[in-house]
Backbone:
């Protein structure tokens, strides 16, 4: 698996609440954010009242587009996508806005509700390839629902139930009735039953942030955070009982997001009543990432997003080029019982095995932990992050105690197993000096209670005191005896 630089590529997303410009770089499978700015223009404020885009909001939005055009030019973007969604799509004076936009050099593509649903679903699939259920994208002007299964998006619908349209105090009962009427007789009605509803959009993320804060989650990372339908009701009770200022203080949310929490909770409860999902799962990827994913070849789409990102970061920060896959093959014989899920996290750790080499020696383990636990990864949940952090900590000499809160996310035996991955990586990096060729000339295996490190006779000098020490440390952790085998 190789990553190919594809950027910089930009997207301007003209929504009902905000106008956002994002520039992406890095690898094409999991692009990195180079720049991200939004302007809360509020284009959709007047749509529910008179069907028109507010003139002041249009002026604000067009000013932002003029700035974004200049930024895009200086960034020398290879491609710039400009899309407009519900507010512009539904407004009677949309042509006026498009004309104003063209005068500052921006020609937006107004996409249909069905296309918006499809692209949002592709964003979910990009970040969570195994997604199975329904993707729900909540914006200011609309709510898109679309089935996702086996890496594909089904037939979606767009409902005029965005945050700006449902009012300040919608009832879950009324919203459920509206949603149920639209979905009656469609495959959507049963697509999430017993499975997951994947939530896209800033309002949904804000709701999840409240849950993370109230539950004192040691990893307050929204992507792939899950909560139950029952939890929605509990959080709605908190929202009702807490003034807006209190919600802002408790969550760190901006006013516009905190003020949307009551309506968001009602929409979630309504979706739970109608679609009966087993759980709600947050996706950090949505429409914009779906646009990029839509441009990829089938081969690149099929890449694992976690491993693709780890490869890109490992290559960029490593000393002597990428040999993470070789490193994983080298330590693999010691962990033949790993499940496919565990083996995937182990490979990610190997791909990242050189990320902290240039940090201060006393803080390499902390740097590595931060990379594994708090890295901008997708395709991984909190459980996986905890294991990845433990492995990288051990790989960089973090033999002390691991953060109890983070470690508490996983079973103690799993955490110890990840520590063994890290110790094996540490041995491999020491014996080879972080190079591929020397690692390729040695092997390690366990047999009859022994941890056997095999070298060719001409490479006997590689087995220094430092290598022997790490050999013994790994053997002790695995309850084995360290043995050197010379060919």
Residues:
């Amino acid at each position: 698996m190789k990553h190919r630089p594809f950027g910089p590529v930009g997207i301007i997303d003209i929504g009902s609440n905000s106008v956002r410009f994002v520039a992406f770089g890095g690898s094409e499978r999991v692009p990195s954010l180079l720049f991200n700015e939004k302007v809360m223009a509020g284009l959709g404020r007047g749509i529910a009242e008179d069907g028109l885009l507010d003139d002041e909001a249009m002026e604000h939005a067009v000013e932002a587009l003029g700035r974004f055009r200049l930024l895009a030019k200086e960034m020398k973007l290879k491609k710039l996508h400009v899309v407009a969604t519900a507010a512009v799509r539904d407004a009677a004076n949309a042509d006026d806005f498009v004309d104003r936009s063209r005068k500052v050099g921006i020609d937006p593509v107004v996409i249909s509700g069905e296309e918006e649903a499809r692209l949002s679903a592709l964003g979910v699939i990009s970040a969570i390839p195994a997604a199975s259920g329904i993707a729900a994208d909540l914006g200011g002007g609309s709510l898109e629902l679309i089935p996702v299964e086996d890496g594909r998006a089904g037939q979606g619908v767009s409902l005029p139930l965005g945050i700006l349209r449902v009012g300040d105090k919608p009832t879950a009962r009324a919203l459920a009735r509206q949603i149920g009427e639209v979905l009656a007789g469609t495959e959507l009605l049963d697509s999430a039953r017993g499975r997951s509803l994947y939530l896209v959009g800033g309002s949904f993320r804000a709701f999840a942030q409240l849950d993370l804060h109230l539950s004192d989650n040691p990893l307050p990372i929204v992507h792939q955070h899950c909560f139950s339908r029952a939890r929605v009701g509990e959080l709605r009770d908190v929202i009702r009982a807490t003034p807006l200022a209190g919600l802002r203080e408790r969550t760190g949310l901006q006013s516009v997001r905190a003020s949307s929490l009551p309506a968001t909770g009602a929409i979630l409860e309504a979706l739970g009543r109608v679609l009966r999902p087993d759980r709600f799962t947050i996706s950090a990827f949505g429409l914009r990432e779906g646009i990029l994913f839509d441009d990829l070849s089938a081969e690149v789409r099929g890449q694992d997003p976690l491993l693709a990102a780890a490869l890109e970061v490992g290559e960029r920060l490593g000393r002597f080029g990428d040999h993470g896959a070789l490193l994983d093959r080298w330590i693999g014989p010691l962990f033949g019982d790993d499940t496919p899920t565990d083996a995937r996290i182990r490979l990610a750790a190997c791909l990242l095995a050189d990320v902290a080499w240039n940090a201060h020696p006393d803080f390499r383990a902390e740097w590595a932990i931060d990379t594994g636990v708090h890295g901008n990864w997708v395709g991984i949940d909190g459980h996986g992050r905890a294991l990845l952090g433990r492995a990288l900590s051990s790989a960089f000499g973090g033999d002390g105690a691991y953060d109890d809160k983070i470690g508490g996310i996983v079973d103690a035996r799993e955490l110890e197993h990840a520590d063994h991955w890290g110790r094996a990586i540490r041995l491999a990096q020491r014996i080879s000096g972080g190079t591929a060729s020397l690692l390729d000339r040695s092997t390690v295996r366990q047999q009859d209670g022994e941890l056997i490190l095999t070298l060719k006779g001409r490479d006997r000098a590689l087995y220094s005191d430092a290598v022997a020490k790490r050999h013994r440390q790994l053997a002790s952790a695995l309850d084995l005896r360290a043995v050197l085998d010379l060919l």
In short: The mean pLDDT is 93. The chain has three domains: 9-111, 114-289, 304-486. The radius of gyration is 25 Å.
